DNA sequence: TAAATAAAATTGGTCTGACAATATTATACC
DNA sequence: GGTATAATATTGTCAGACCAATTTTATTTA
C-alpha cells in the first residue's frame, strides 16, 4: 500500500511537469484537456484543475477558457510577481541594487569588448540622440535612457545574460527613486563617450565612463542615507 | 453593470495580493481562512481555492492542511521552477551561462575590493583547504569549490547581489557539464591567489586570477562546440 | 493548580454533479 | 468554396458532501 504523504495535487503537478519535459513539449503545443487528464491520472476534476492553475501561475501551462490547455511561452511575469513579494517583504537596499546594476552594465561592456562583438554603433547613437532631444524639449527622458542601457546589454548577444539583467531591472522598477534633473546633459555625453570607447574596443575607458555615469546616483544615495 | 472580462479567480488573486501589500502583511502572518475569504469576496469555495493555490505556486501564500493560510516566506524555489521550464524550452548556451557566471564573480571581487569590505579571509582559506583535502583524498571536490565561490559572493555583503547570483547558480545547476579531473590543483592555487589578492585589495590581480580560473572551462566549451 | 488526555470544532483536501460561458468543429446554405 | 449557423467540446463557477489534518476546548488525572 502506498503512503500518500504529498497531496494529490502535488503529485499531479509533478506528473504533468514530467510529461512535458520527457516528451519535450514546446510552447503553444496543445496539452491534454481536463477530461483527458482525469482519465490519465485517475483523479477528480478538482485535483486536475488545481494542478493546472498552479502550473499556470508559474508560467508552464496556459489554460484558455473553453479552448483547452497549452504549453506556455516562458515569460518573466511570474518572476516579477515573486520578486515583488520579496521586495515587499524584505525591502531592498537601493544601494545594493544600484551596485548590482553597475556590475551588470560593466560586465556587459566587458562581454562586448573582450569577445569583440560587432555592435550596432549607429543604433546606440540614434538612441542617445533621441535622449538628447527629450532633454532639450524638456520631455520625459527616462525612456531613451532605459533604451540605451537595454541596448547595451542586448549588444552582448548573450541571451542568458540579458535574461538575468532583465530580472534585475524588473526588481529595479519596483523601487522609486527621485532622480535629479540636472546632469542629464552630462549623462548624454557619457553615453556618447561609452559608444566611442566601444568602437575603440577600449574596455578600461568604457568601464571608467560607466562608473562615472553611476557616480551621481551613488552620491544621491549616500546623501539619503546620511539624512535619515 | 460591470463587464467581467477576467475570471473570478484572477480577480480574487488580485484582491488577495492587494490586501497583503496594502496591509503590509509579513511572512508567517496568519491570513484569512477559506471560509472567511468566501464571505469577504462573495465567491464560491472553488474560486477561493484556485486563487490560493495559484498564490501558493508563486510563493506568496502557504496553505497548511487543516491549519489555515499563511503569508509565505519569499523563497527562490518558484523561480527555480520557472527557470527550469525556460531551460527545458529554450535550452541554454553553456557558453553564455559561463560568461554570465564569470561576470558575476568578477563583479563580486570588484564590490569587495572597491568598497573595502572586510572579508573573513580565514574562512575562505579554510574552505580552500578542505577543497585541497578532497582533491588529495580523491573525493568529490565539487562541494567545496562551490562553497568557496558562494562565500566569495556572500562576502560582498550585498544581499541583492547574492540573490541574483543565486538565481544564476540555480540555472547553472540544471546544466550538466563534464568536468575534467586534471587542473584541480591549479584551481586550488588560483583560489589561494585570489584570497591573497583580496587581502592586498588588488582588484586587477584578483580579477586576472579569476579570469585564468575560468579559462579551462571556456577552452572545454570551445572544444565541445568544435566537435559538434 | 498544572499537565496530560480526550472530545469537539475548525480548516483544508478530494470527490461528485450540475450548469454557464467560451472556443472549436461540423453542418447547412448560398 | 465561402459564410453563417448549429452542434460539440472545453473551461469557469457553483453547491454540497465527506474525509483528513490541525487546532481549540473540555475533561481527566496527578
UniProtKB/TrEMBL annotation, chains A, B:
Residues 6-74 form the HTH gntR-type domain. It comes from the Bacteria. Keywords: DNA-binding, Transcription, Transcription regulation. Coiled coil: none annotated. It holds the Pfam family FCD. This is GntR family transcriptional regulator.
Amino acid at each position: 500500500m502506498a503512503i500518500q504523504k504529498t497531496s494529490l495535487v502535488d503529485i499531479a503537478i509533478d506528473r504533468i511537469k514530467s510529461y512535458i519535459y520527457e516528451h519535450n513539449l514546446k510552447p503553444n503545443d496543445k496539452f491534454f484537456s481536463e477530461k483527458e487528464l482525469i482519465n490519465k491520472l485517475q483523479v477528480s476534476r478538482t485535483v486536475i484543475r488545481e494542478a493546472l492553475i498552479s502550473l499556470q501561475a508559474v508560467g508552464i501551462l496556459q489554460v484558455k477558457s473553453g479552448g483547452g490547455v497549452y504549453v506556455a511561452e516562458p515569460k518573466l511575469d511570474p518572476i516579477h510577481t515573486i520578486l515583488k513579494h520579496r521586495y515587499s517583504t524584505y525591502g531592498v537596499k537601493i544601494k545594493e541594487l544600484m551596485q548590482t546594476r553597475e556590475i551588470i552594465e560593466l560586465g556587459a561592456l566587458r562581454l562586448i569588448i573582450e569577445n569583440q562583438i560587432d555592435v550596432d554603433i549607429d543604433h546606440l547613437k540614434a538612441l542617445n540622440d533621441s535622449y538628447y532631444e527629450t532633454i532639450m524639449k524638456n520631455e520625459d527622458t527616462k525612456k531613451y535612457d532605459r533604451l540605451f542601457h537595454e541596448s547595451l546589454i542586448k549588444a552582448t548577444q548573450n541571451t542568458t545574460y540579458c535574461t538575468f539583467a532583465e530580472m534585475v531591472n524588473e526588481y529595479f522598477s519596483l523601487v522609486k527613486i527621485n532622480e535629479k534633473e540636472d546632469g542629464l546633459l552630462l549623462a548624454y555625453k557619457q553615453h556618447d563617450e561609452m559608444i566611442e570607447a566601444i568602437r575603440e574596443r577600449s574596455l578600461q575607458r568604457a568601464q571608467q565612463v560607466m562608473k562615472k555615469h553611476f557616480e551621481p546616483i551613488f552620491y544621491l544615495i549616500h546623501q539619503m542615507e546620511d539624512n535619515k
